[in-house]
Design a protein that fits this description.
By secondary structure, the chain is mainly β. The protein contains four helices and 24 strands.
Length: 410
Amino acid sequence: MKHILILSIATGSLIAGGYKIPEQSLNSMALGGANIAHTVGADSAYFNPANMSFMKNSNFIESGITLAHLPSINFNGFQALSPTTILASNNSSEVENIPIPFFHFVSKDYNDFRFGLSLTVPAGLTKRWKNGVQKLFAQEFGLKIVEFNPSFSYKLNDKLSIGGGVRLIYSEGVVKSNGFDIGKPIARDMEGDTVEYGYNLALSYRPLDDLNIAVTYRSKIDLKEEGDAKLSLGTLLDTYNSSVVVPLPASFNLAISKALNDNFVIEFNYEKTFWSEYKNLDFVYDRAIFPTLKAPFDNPKAKNWRDTNTYRVGVSWQVTDDIILMGAYAYDETPVPVANLSYELPDSDAHIFSGGIRVKYSDKLSYGVAILYDKKDSIDIGAGENQNGIIGKFDDGGAILTTIGISYEF
């Protein structure tokens, strides 16, 4: 199996700023990620394991799938390949439809300890430009990240609990670019996988029966990709062993939920994501590459991403004994400076709207559906503002995510 720099030259996003996918359950999708303090189901194992201590003394399971629909990103403008070569580059990326499964489990209480397990897709990307100047930079960039996350909680007293877990990350992907169609005879073809490790921590405090305060932290994980890279220029073709390190960033959440009455809960959530660890992308090869290939493939590429803030508010309404309605709004900052933006990730700030319903089928079984709309701001780039030579406007894009899920208690 080939191994290769899969987080790629710029990494494209599915839903959150950068390449994170925060929503990994039915409730989290309906609440736009505002479900850190108020978690009542099996997804507590992932979002806030400390809250497992305050759940009913039963086993809980939740499973489901999300379909991520990524509309085309439209670009109108020009691409400066050199100070004297500027090409019109109006184009649209390919539409993508991606299934994202999830699974969560929470155990019964064992002497104030509880144990959980989650299988999620916490980050990823896909971006394809099938023609035009963009194909020279991002014919195809794809990334899958799967996280296996065993966790625990310990109940210190009736008001305070701590928790944590181990993050086992498996990722695989592909990177392709090709300029032959526009008279630039240069291409790359890469694919591979890697396994890395990290941790997560959580604390939950309930000063009042109707007030929850939660703090969570997920560690940074450096994804070190090692493998083969096929590089070509004209008739010249060679394969190299290569490596690159790209961070899956650390994140910090502070959340507060308040029950306004027996049927209505509101949660406020603040998340800090430490994208500033992503300073540059530097490919390392096992030997000196041909001088003609060095400039396009062996120069470190500055990223200089910045830390971001995400603000979320979500509400849950127990309409009847069997029906819960949920809704949320979030504002999500992009980590990508305009100066470093590229076709692989034309990312911008986003407004996120979501909602959903959960229906109780029996005392043990419930199911539901949720939908989330991620609206990206347009990006206008003036001449000289972008180090990659992009001049013009990106608009549309964003994402629509639809989740169905089922939960069982035993």
